[in-house]
Specification:
Strand order of the largest sheet: 1-2
Radius of gyration: 17 Å
Strand content: under 5%
Number of strands: 2
Helix content: over 70%
Structural class: mainly alpha
Largest sheet: 2 strands, parallel
Number of helices: 7
Number of domains: 1
Length: about 140
């Protein structure tokens, strides 16, 4: 049972800050989205079942977090779109800034994030080879 202690409120605040940073990380390629979203889910599960359930069932983040926490994997289309958006935003940033040192830094970040994304397992259904979603997985257990 979760009590109304100062620790609970602190975890909610930290989880919310982490969520905001994770959302900003979707737009700014230097900020890693996944660790912040996972940390938010950790803070929420230890402080507010309501906020945790909201995050896990969120139409944008929910399936992504569920698959990562449950299977240690993400869907193929998430990988593809993440890589496209990453490199598109990095190239635009490099063209706008036109600074050699910053361009090298952004390129290195892009390589690191790309390697990380490509090394994460791709979520597949063991029987059919199809990608899973939390809704399909929940219906399997009924």
């Amino acid at each position: 049972m979760i009590t109304k202690s100062p620790k609970r409120y602190l975890l909610i605040i930290i989880g919310t800050i982490s969520l905001v940073i994770g959302i900003i990380g979707i737009i700014i390629p230097v900020l890693p989205t996944t660790p912040f979203l996972l940390f938010s889910s950790f803070c929420y599960i230890n402080s507010s079942k309501f906020l945790y359930n909201w995050l896990i069932s969120h139409k944008i983040f929910g399936e992504y977090i569920y698959n990562y926490l449950t299977y240690g994997a993400i869907k193929r289309d998430v990988k593809i779109w993440s890589l496209i958006f990453l490199w598109l935003s990095l190239v635009i940033s490099m063209l706008i800034v036109l600074n050699l040192h910053l361009t090298i830094f952004l390129f290195a970040v892009g390589i690191g994030v790309s390697i990380h994304l490509l090394t994460i397992k791709t979520q597949r259904d063991e029987k059919s080879g199809k990608l899973l979603s939390p809704i399909k997985e929940q219906n399997k257990h009924k």
